[in-house]
Amino acid sequence: AALSAHPGVGHQLTSKTLGCVPIDIEFWGKASHAAAAPEQGINALNMAELAMNNIHALRETFRDEDKVRVSIVIKEGGGLVNVVPERVTMEIMVRAFTIDAMEDASHKVNRSMKAAAMALGGKVEIHDCIGYLPLNTDRQIARLYRDNMMAYEHAGEDAFVEDWETAGSTDLGDISQIMPCMHIWAGGIKGGLHTENYRMDDPY
Fold first, then answer.
1. In the chain, what is the straight-line distance between the N-terminal and C-terminal CA atoms, in Å?
2. CB of 152 within 8 A of CB of 14?
3. 97 Cβ partners below 8 Å, 6+ apart?
4. CA 14 to CA 185: how far, in whole Å?
């Protein structure tokens, strides 16, 4: 069996995490002078903008119970403001509770990017990467952890959230597909995850 502990608020026993599919994207257009000859260019940044709008329009097609998340950043958006952007790079992470939902959402996202490039006459290169599988927590181990915390750390029953479905992703999801696993959130932390306010509050 494998146990993973993450600092957090309270004593959550994670029952599920999202699997994820990272996607690297390059939009390719054609450079031209942005003022003197914009009609001669193909704007890769406009392709990226269209792609994001396409993805936003998809969000209502995702089932609530699948908890699909599509996160987007533009890593490179052009060089000079007086040049029509020829190359734009993006990174997208598609997440969901099930492998089927991950595959469905990532297919829709890729289709949205292809449509954006086609609309402006440019090109797009899409590189799907291997991410993490969803986490399947072993309930027997989770109950044992809860009982031990109550017996040896004097934690009360109301100190635990036993069926917590988090929107995060973890490599423990991969391991949980082949052996019993449990992911816990220990206390002692203040502030939001992945923010500058996240800090240790109670080392013990």
1. 25
2. no
3. 16, 18, 19, 65, 66, 67, 134, 165
4. 7
Q: Going by C-beta distance under 8 Å and a sequence separation of 6 or more, which residues neighbour residue 53? A: none
Q: Which residues contact 74 (CB under 8 A, 6 or more apart)?
A: 48, 88, 89, 90
Question: In this predicted model, what pLDDT tens digit does every residue of 112-162 receive, in sequence order?
Answer: 999 999 999 999 999 999 899 998 888 888 888 888 888 887 777 777 776
Q: Which of 150, 159, 193 is nearest to 11 (CA)?
A: 159
Q: Tokens 């533009």 correspond to what residue?
A: 74
Q: Which two tokens stand for residue 196?
A: 């500058």
Token pair listed for 32: 């031209």
- Taking only the tens place, the pLDDT of each residue in 65-124 is 999 999 999 999 998 999 999 999 999 999 999 999 999 999 999 999 999 999 999 999
pLDDT value for 178? 93
- For the chain, the residue count is 204
